[in-house]
Amino acid sequence: MIAVLIVVCEVGFWVLLAGGLALRYLAKMPRTGVAVLLLEPLLELVLLIVTAVDLKNGAEPDWKHGLAAAYIGFSVALGHRTVKWVDVRFAHRFAGGPPPVPAPKYGRARTVFEWQSAARWILAALIAMGLLEAAVRYVGDPAQTTSLRGWQAKMLFVIGINLVIATSYTIWPKQAPEADPPPGGTDDRDRTGAGRESGR
User: Fold this and answer.
1) Could you tell me the pTM of the whole model?
2) Which residues does 147 contact at the CB level (< 8 Å), separation at least 6?
3) C-beta of residue 61 within 8 angstroms of C-beta of residue 148
């Protein structure tokens, strides 16, 4: 049941997103569209309640409960960002909105961008780990919580990967490519100027 509910929540997220944006931009009903978009957090709340009830009723914690915690964590930390990302592109494509601003590619701006992205993923992993820890303490029996501890290890891996990526951009920032030199390797204006100087 938990695995099915996760699929339902994921599908529901994109259905509500598409419906809310269509109402907001295509049907010219911005308030109704926003109301539909605000229903999305209810999906995570329903999943959290059902997961807790399932454990309360004596279900043995397994990978599905761990996946539910991970899904909730990533939805909370990244869901708003995903909605905003899609909203800008939908508005540009169907409502004459401004084009989306591309992510920075080079230098300090790129480093800041990578750390911001890492912070969101780390927050998602920490939320998931907190929910998993609550489930572990709720169950109480270490023999029944092996799968949940395994998901906590996966979340630590997510944190580590994001820290490595962001740190790599800090130590080795990506530099913009240099402009190609003109043919011959010397600017014609320099050669002309040098000729004038020699002719004096």
Assistant:
1) 0.78
2) 61, 62, 63, 65, 66
3) yes
